[in-house]
Design brief:
This protein is an all-alpha fold and 190 residues long. The chain has one domain. Helices cover 71% and strands 0% of the residues. α2 crosses α3, α4 packs across α8 and α6 packs across α8.
Length: 190
């Protein structure tokens, strides 16, 4: 099972959705909708950041820091998730486009900015924890493995992140952030 499918299946559990919904004061349907939009966006932002040697090295170090996060029980994970760490991760992934991405997600889901921000601060550490766990399980994990997990290489036709990249980068310029506005209904402006 690929990473995106794994995370989406974990985040469909009713108890997990209720817990997250309660923590941010949102309806379960809105939480599900946000996770379905946010996870591919965050993965693609990681992919984009890992295209440089410095970005890839930084991400590999972050995965080492999160490799022992217990992501097998999401109820427990979300009880103790470090939202400050999540905010730092989002800052690295989205940079100066973070607010625009959050605004677009809020407009698309009906959530307010604080709810979107709170959810993203929970999803970002989960994503790194899951990637860190995969990295730890593979001996000799390196840049090529990272690129394969994030869809940065074009290995195989079943590369889900390659498909997401193609969908998100509709103008083919290699920058999905300008295309997020199109995905989210044109709410975001460059």
């Amino acid at each position: 099972m690929d990473l995106l499918s794994l995370l989406n299946s974990q985040l469909q559990d009713q108890d997990v959705v209720k817990k997250i919904s309660k923590q941010v004061g949102a309806k379960p349907d809105q939480v599900k909708q946000l996770t379905e939009l946010a996870l591919p966006t965050l993965l693609q932002a990681m992919n984009k950041n890992s295209q440089t040697q410095d970005g890839a090295t930084s991400l590999l170090k972050a995965l080492d820091q999160h490799q022992d996060d217990d992501v097998s029980d999401l109820n427990q994970f979300f009880n103790k998730v470090d939202k400050q760490d999540g905010a730092k991760i989002l800052g690295h992934l989205l940079g100066n486009k973070e607010v625009r991405v959050e605004q677009g997600l809020a407009a698309k889901t009906g959530l307010d900015m604080s709810q979107v921000s709170g959810l993203l601060m929970m999803l970002a550490p989960l994503l790194l924890g899951q990637l860190g766990k995969q990295k730890k399980q593979q001996n000799g994990f390196g840049l090529d493995d990272l690129m394969g997990m994030l869809g940065g290489s074009n290995r195989g036709s079943n590369d889900v992140m390659g498909m997401v990249s193609g969908l998100l980068d509709s103008d083919g310029d290699g920058d999905i952030m300008d295309d997020v506005s199109k995905l989210l209904g044109g709410f975001l402006k460059k």
